[in-house]
Write a structure and sequence with these properties.
Layout lengths: L24 H22 L16 H10 L5 H16 L15 H5 L3 H16 L5
């Protein structure tokens, strides 16, 4: 059927009784190309999704992002900091507001950030996401 995914090497879809057969190498290659095209289209669509930090298409946080998140939320769980880093990196890539221009060199970063509403908003977003997946916050 149109839109059905076919894993290379499987029986061809729609084959009736007595017609089941393995895909030929050419059919396997064509099926693999369709799978890759579909995945590429999904990745491209995800690049503009501001919620991609919650998906398998989340951007890989940079070292600077990881250091910043560690400074802002040192008391939080590892799972929280991983999710926060993915959210932070997504916002960096999308040029969305972040709690000030931050660097890992700022020793009092956490104190400066404590009263900022955006820190609380990002914290709430990560907590909500972790709770929805029944993960510790």
């Amino acid at each position: 059927m149109p839109g059905d995914r076919v894993d290379p090497g499987t029986l061809r879809p729609g084959a009736g009784a007595g017609e089941d057969r393995e895909l030929t190498p050419r059919e396997q290659e064509a099926a693999q190309e369709r799978v890759e095209e579909t995945e590429a289209a999904e990745r491209a669509a995800a690049q503009s999704d501001p919620d991609r930090w919650r998906s398998i298409y989340a951007p890989e946080p940079t070292e600077q992002t990881e250091e910043t998140v560690e400074l802002i939320w040192p008391e939080r769980s590892t799972g929280f900091r991983i999710a926060a880093a993915r959210l932070w990196q997504t916002r960096v890539e999308d040029n969305l507001p972040l709690p000030r221009q931050l660097t890992a060199q700022t020793a009092r970063l956490r104190d400066r950030m404590a009263n900022e509403a955006l820190r609380e908003e990002l914290t709430a977003m990560v907590e909500t996401d972790l709770r929805s997946m029944k993960l510790p916050v």
